[in-house]
Design goal:
heterodimer; A: mainly beta; six-stranded mixed beta sheet; five-stranded antiparallel beta sheet; B: mainly beta; seven-stranded mixed beta sheet; four-stranded antiparallel beta sheet; 11 strands; 56% strand; globular
Amino acid sequence: AQSVTQLGSHVSVSEGALVLLRCNYSSSVPPYLFWYVQYPNQGLQLLLKYTTGATLVKGINGFEAEFKKSETSFHLTKPSAHMSDAAEYFCAVSDPFQKLVFGTGTRLLVSP
Amino acid sequence: DTAVSQTPKYLVTQMGNDKSIKCEQNLGHDTMYWYKQDSKKFLKIMFSYNNKELIINETVPNRFSPKSPDKAHLNLHINSLELGDSAVYFCASSQVAQSEAFFGQGTRLTVV
């Protein structure tokens, strides 16, 4: 069965610092991987996705993620954090039965 | 011009009551979902419909009954509400299997 592990329930960075949110997955088939962001009292918004092809994927708001099959990882990065990046981030894997399996989420805190 | 819209956004009700949450998508997608987000932000799928047919029914109490009158609508009816049903319920849709899901803004259900 597919599963996702997000290391760190909270990550704190200073404004302008590198953002690194970790995601490891387990999948019995080639995975489709996603990162979503959730702002307070909002729904989930897709940041980026990996399906096939290029392993480095770029998303909205300057985020990118790299699919590493050998490490079963799909970490999310952003070179320079902005205050507006403070939110909850979810990594997800799509299973063959058309559902998304989410990680437990990582809250990103950005300090001035 | 919301893509996935849910109503109501907030729902406060007493134990034992029956309530419904409505969802509509104008994206032309074939697949719709209900996800539950608990107080720890954990997201878990409840149901999935493809072109009005139920394709995923996770281990959800029988008190929860989804209904899809057409492929643009997926409603969730909950009977005999319990305190433990308090959560945020998200409707989502996707075009094809394993593609990204688009989420509504969520319905925060509070059972008192």
